[in-house]
Backbone:
């Protein structure tokens, strides 16, 4: 097979405009490498190496491979010797690059600094998108964020420069949109310290959300471990049209699989319907795959991806991808562990919620359902944008509806906000008139950042505790997530439906059948939204917001003040003492859903993400205590008094008392934030015992030296009382696959034993014995 080598001969940065153009020459070579500057030295695309690995694995397995398997196995550290068994074995992988958002990058870089390594081993970037609070509007909010977060931004910029990491400044956009525009490409394996990293699957990439400690492994050049994923196939037939959008595909899938149905699996979309979806639409679907617990999601390489890459200055890469296309699509006859089929021609607009992203309703039925359940019908705020739905196509389709309303003399009855996904999107929709239309209909254009989607919203229109409804084009709608108000009923849907409901002002408005009243009293229906997939002209890159890592960064100073309340250097966690853990207290027995938002809230707490002791003051303050149905109110069994969860944990730690948390199903679903694991470890926790875990959180707990354990019999959850003591026995002889025993000592003196399971492999057990993965890394240096 002939192979291509594309070498970057020149990278021009047009100062003042930020326009980036790559000039690449193609030539035949023995290796199919695309050596790209891509804002960092030594970033490479090596399709031939992946091709060789795929062929090794295919010969070993003697069967057709799914697309997911091709890319994952194509990145094996040892394709010839790696044991491969879906859902059972752990794979040792070599990802191509790392991306970190600013809230998680703080802890990731603090851990990397603690490792003592001089420079990252793979191309890595930091993206400033989480720390910008929505208050007034884009420019004002961005300027305020730069002032309030100056210390953190300076730390990230200097740490990036010192260790060879690219730095996207505040205002550049949301990490996932930046990755799609610049770093994702068919066949790449990228890990990111954000749960919605799978967004890159819209470009045929394997992009996986992880905790910061996993990112440190990859940046250190250590093979990264992932449990060999199962593969769920979603066969798409028919084609999208009318009011139905790509978002409706994942809303429907979420309703089918629920928030934990994708756990341990990659969701692979295939079938003839794929070609009716734009590249950015595919990214939307993959992005929200995080809400079903999937490891990641992916689409096969096709002409929609090729067109998008050409439009974003990466046509040379797509030319090489064309040459290796057989590696970027599933083999004929490949087998999936589960198959779901969706006819896009029959799919109707959907809206999911409230309080969970898998409560799925057709838009045509949500009004009746809301009335039945007592959900507020008035839509207080409609919010479009976010990493899930902020593409040029999304904004264009929303603007087409806003234009129809304006032409009839109407504006939004609800408040309406617009979040561009990147500076490039902001500049382009402003140039092409979409921003003006959305503003004229009543919209406020926010900063290129996460904003209300992650709780960075200084909301003023309702009081905390006031029951109300908002509709968003976001991906997640857990209780109090967007505005810290547990009474807010948040629904997720497409930007088109959000815009229509914001105009109508009510949740029971079905734009396919219902009429609006024009300013002159005329009744009219909104026509189905339209919008160009990509701009007819080139994208406008907007302002230059990128900081290149210097070739040599050893002289760069990274300062962390010992008196800072935003940043804190890390101290190593204590090592396991080699014996069973006895007489541990139950800090809290959690009732029902417990996401990472419940364990470590975002919003105003984001400012402490670089300071472990301060951020630990939010540990489990959102979790419901089964003992009293209250949040942040647990009994201190040493004093007999009630206190906040972090306060009681600190008291136990100060008195040498180890403790555990007991939880329900899918514990730790949601964000990839490793603070939800760091905080319990920091405050003296030893084990988290639950019915089942979300994937990322379970790994994060292992990385920090905690024991994530599951009931062998889920009914044993009911045997544990909040005032019990628990001893975990069998630790000195713990090996992979061998259960542990928990001895429960009740306050009446009676005892009973239950079996607890774990998923540790031998490498992960070394983390536990050393006290953390970072401790183990240091031992091996």
Residues:
């Amino acid at each position: 097979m002939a192979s291509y080598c594309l070498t970057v001969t020149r990278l021009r940065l047009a100062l003042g405009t930020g326009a980036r153009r790559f000039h690449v020459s193609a030539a035949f070579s023995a290796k199919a490498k695309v050596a790209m500057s891509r804002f960092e030295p030594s970033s490479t695309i090596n399709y031939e190496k992946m091709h060789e690995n795929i062929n090794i694995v295919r010969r070993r397995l003697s069967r057709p491979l799914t697309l997911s398997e091709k890319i994952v196995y194509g990145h094996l550290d040892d394709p010839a010797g790696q044991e491969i068994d879906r859902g059972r074995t752990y794979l040792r992988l070599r990802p191509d690059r790392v991306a970190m958002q600013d809230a998680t990058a703080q802890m990731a870089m603090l851990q990397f600094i603690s490792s003592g390594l001089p420079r990252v081993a793979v191309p890595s970037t930091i993206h400033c998108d989480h720390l910008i609070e929505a208050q007034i509007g884009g420019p004002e909010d961005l300027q305020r964020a730069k002032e309030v977060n100056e210390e953190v931004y300076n730390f990230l910029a200097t740490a990036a420069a010192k260790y060879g990491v690219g730095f996207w400044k505040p205002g550049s956009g949301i990490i996932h949109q930046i990755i799609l525009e610049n770093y994702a490409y068919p066949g790449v394996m990228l890990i990111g310290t954000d749960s919605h990293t799978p967004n890159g699957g819209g470009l045929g990439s394997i992009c996986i959300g992880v905790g910061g400690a996993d990112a440190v492994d990859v940046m250190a050049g250590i093979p990264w471990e992932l449990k060999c994923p199962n593969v769920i196939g979603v066969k798409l037939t028919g084609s999208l049209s009318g009011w139905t959008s790509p978002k409706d595909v994942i809303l429907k899938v979420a309703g089918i699989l629920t928030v934990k149905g994708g756990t341990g699996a990659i969701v692979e979309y295939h079938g003839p319907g794929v070609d009716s979806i734009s590249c950015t639409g595919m990214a939307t679907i993959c992005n929200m795959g995080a809400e079903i617990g999937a490891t990641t999601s992916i689409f096969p390489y096709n002409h929609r991806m090729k067109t998008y890459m050409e439009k974003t200055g990466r046509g040379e890469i797509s030319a090489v991808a064309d040459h290796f296309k057989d590696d970027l699509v599933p083999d004929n006859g490949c087998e999936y562990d589960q198959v779901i089929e969706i006819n896009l021609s029959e799919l109707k607009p959907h809206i999911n919620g409230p309080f969970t992203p898998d409560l799925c309703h057709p838009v045509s039925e949500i009004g009746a359902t809301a009335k039945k359940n007592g959900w507020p019908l008035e839509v207080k705020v409609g919010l479009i944008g976010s990493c899930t739905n902020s593409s040029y196509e999304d904004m264009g389709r929303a603007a087409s509806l806003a234009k129809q309303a304006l032409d009839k003399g109407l504006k939004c009855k609800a408040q309406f906000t617009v979040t561009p996904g990147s500076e490039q999107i902001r500049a382009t929709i402003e140039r092409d008139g979409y921003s003006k239309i959305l503003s004229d209909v009543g919209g406020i254009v926010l900063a290129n950042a996460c904003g209300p989607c992650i709780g960075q919203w200084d909301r003023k229109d309702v009081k905390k505790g006031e029951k109300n409804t908002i509709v968003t084009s976001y991906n997640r709608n857990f209780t109090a997530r967007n505005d810290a108000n547990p009474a807010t009923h948040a629904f997720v849907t497409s930007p088109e439906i959000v815009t229509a409901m914001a105009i109508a002002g009510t949740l029971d408005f079905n734009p396919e059948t219902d009429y609006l009243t024009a300013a002159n009293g005329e009744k009219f229906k909104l026509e189905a939204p339209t919008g160009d997939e990509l701009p007819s002209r080139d994208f406008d890159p907007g302002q230059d917001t990128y900081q290149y890592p210097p070739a040599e960064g050893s002289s760069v100073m990274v300062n962390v003040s010992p008196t800072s309340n935003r940043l804190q250097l890390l101290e190593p966690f204590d090592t396991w003492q080699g014996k069973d853990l006895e007489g541990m207290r139950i800090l809290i027995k959690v009732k029902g859903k417990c996401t990472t938002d419940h364990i470590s809230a975002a919003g105003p707490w984001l400012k402490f993400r670089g300071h472990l002791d301060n951020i630990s003051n939010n540990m489990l303050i959102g979790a419901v205590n089964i003992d009293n149905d209250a949040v942040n109110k647990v009994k201190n069994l040493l004093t007999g008094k009630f206190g906040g969860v972090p306060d009681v944990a600190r008291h136990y730690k100060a008195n040498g008392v180890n403790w555990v948390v007991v939880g329900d199903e899918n514990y730790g679903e949601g964000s990839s934030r490793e603070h939800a694991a760091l905080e319990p470890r920091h405050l003296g926790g030893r084990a988290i015992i639950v019915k089942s875990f979300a994937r990322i959180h379970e790994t994060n707990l292992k990385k920090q030296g905690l024991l994530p354990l599951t009931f062998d019999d889920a009914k044993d959850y009911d045997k544990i009382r909040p005032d019990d003591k628990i001893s975990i026995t069998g630790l000195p002889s713990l090996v992979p696959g061998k259960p542990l025993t928990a001895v429960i000592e009740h306050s009446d003196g009676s005892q009973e034993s239950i079996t607890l399971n774990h998923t540790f492999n031998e490498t992960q057990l070394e983390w536990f014995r050393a006290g953390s993965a970072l401790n183990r890394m240091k031992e091996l240096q």
Observations:
- The longest helix spans residues 392-407.
- The radius of gyration is 25 Å.
- Residues 562 and 568 are 7 Å apart (CA to CA).
- The mean pLDDT is 93.
